[in-house]
Structure formats: C-alpha cells, structure tokens
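ok so for the tutorial part 2 we go from a plain amino acid sequence to predicted structure tokens. step 1 is just haveing the sequence, like this:
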Amino acid sequence: MKSSKIALALAALLATGSVAPAFADDDSGVDKAANASLIVTRIGGLGAGLVVGAPIAIVRETTRSYRGLTESAADKVGGKDFGPSCLLVSLVTLPASLVVGGAKGTYIGSRNAMKHGFNDPFNSDSFSVGKLEE
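step 2 — the prediction. this is what the tokens look like for a chain of 134 residues:
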C-alpha cells in the first residue's frame, strides 16, 4: 500500500515535469495568471464606469443638445442673441433635449464604460469625463 502511494506520487511528478517546458515560452503563463488575477478589478472598473459614467454622459449630452436645439430653433424665430426668442423656443427644446440627451448619453456612457472600463479600469475615459465621442 505504501509502495503504491509512492508510485502514484512519482507518476504525478513525472507527468508534471514533462508538461512544465510548455509553460516556459514567453512567460505567457505569467501573463495569463496576471490577467486572471485582475478580473475582479476589471469588472469593478466596468461597473463603476456604468454607474458613474453613464449619468455624467447623460448630463453632458443633455446640456449639449439643449444648447444646440435652442440656438438652431431661436435662429428661425428671432435670432439666438435675442433673449425672448430663446425663452420661447426653450418651452419646446428643453423637453426635447431631455429625451435626446438622455438617449445619446446613455448610449455614449455605456459605450465608454464597456470600451475603457474593462481594459483600463477606473480611467477618466470610462467615467465619460474626457472628450465625448460620437
């Protein structure tokens, strides 16, 4: 019984020793282990990018669309430099910019979180703080 345990241990040692040179090339085993250990951080960065970055992108896109819609509509009414025309078109452009900015901001914020949050966790681009791409 004792000799069978020793034989089993020696067989396991020989099997492991014969496979070991396969892990020696280019430290790929070390890179795989390092990437596997970072999975929790990467998923946390992705989640934080979605939770924090998407609302930031929504607010930024809403203000951007409000300015753009108000200026273009006020130019048709009385000019974007004329205050009453801007106030008049704001009755329509404010709700429209909330819808447009909410939809575009959700898309852009989620895309930035997915694009930057996993590969480069907790980066400012994953929180939509940098330049927003369209």
